[in-house]
Design goal:
With 254 residues, the chain is an all-alpha fold. It has ten helices and two strands. The protein has a domain of 161 residues: Fumarate Reductase Cytochrome B subunit (Up-down Bundle), CATH 1.20.950.
Length: 254
């Protein structure tokens, strides 16, 4: 008589919730906005896309500040401050020859996040001033400097996450995607706050759609530029007009 053995399904590894949905949506919207803004920085063809993504980054920063004040404990700005306060302790351990590497890793990640958020302020302000022609070309150079600085911080942040994933043997990107980290233990967050995340995503998509609706069509924009050029005339456009020399010949005193 043959007996069939049915093996029980393999148990899923234990996980716990560590990152709420609004923080994850903010993170990926900010990453996509910066990537798109950086790729569309040169050329007039993508100027409106670049400006729209810059406004998006400024709005996302405002949301993160508010969420860092009223959100769950692990998403608050005070949590970053608590990690940064561990710097003196880590330095003392380093001098004693017994540094706490886990504390050092948390410090580097916290410093990266603070630097990312801090650089958005001068980046978006200089971009707004450049777009509205507040000053000369020097402000555009400032805007470019902060854009490259933010890119450097982003690349360093990505490198740090990859290195930590290798050292710890755990994928450090997964919590920013699923909100959960492998390992036993209670959830750090009681609620995922999915409704807030949905509202944030809807607000950003709605803003993008509104900007698209407000954008002038290509033929209309070309026609308006041609009209302005005709009304401006050669004196304002900088074109050479030989009639001006003939009409007002230079005088020579004998």
């Amino acid at each position: 008589m043959n007996t069939t053995t049915i093996s029980a399904p393999a148990a899923r590894p234990a996980t716990r919730r560590t990152v709420d949905a609004p923080t994850r949506v903010f993170h990926w919207l900010l990453a996509l906005s910066f990537l798109g803004a950086y790729l569309t920085a040169d050329g007039e063809r993508w100027r409106l896309v670049h400006v729209t993504l810059g406004y998006t980054m400024a709005g996302l920063l405002g949301f993160r500040v508010v969420w860092g004040l009223v959100g769950p404990r692990h998403a608050r700005l005070s949590a970053l401050w608590r990690k940064l306060r561990g710097l003196p302790q880590w330095i003392r351990g380093l001098k004693a020859g017994a540094p706490n590497w886990r504390l050092g890793q948390n410090l580097l990640l916290a410093l990266g996040v603070v630097a990312l958020l801090a650089l958005i302020v001068p980046l978006t302000l200089s971009g707004y001033g450049t777009y509205n022609e507040w000053t000369g070309e020097w402000l555009e150079e400032v805007h470019e400097f902060f854009g490259n600085a933010l890119l450097a911080v982003v690349l360093a942040h990505i490198a740090m996450v990859v290195v930590l994933s290798v050292l710890r043997g755990k994928n450090q990107i997964t919590p920013m995607v699923t909100g959960r980290m492998e390992g036993a233990g209670p959830d750090l967050l009681k609620s995922n706050h999915a409704a807030v995340a949905a509202l944030l995503l809807a607000a950003v998509l709605g803003f993008w759609a509104w900007q698209w609706q407000q954008a002038p069509s290509a033929p209309a924009a070309t026609e308006n530029a041609a009209t302005v050029a005709r009304r401006s005339g050669p004196a304002q456009t900088g074109a050479y007009d030989g009639r001006r020399d003939r009409k007002h010949p230079s005088r020579h005193d004998d």
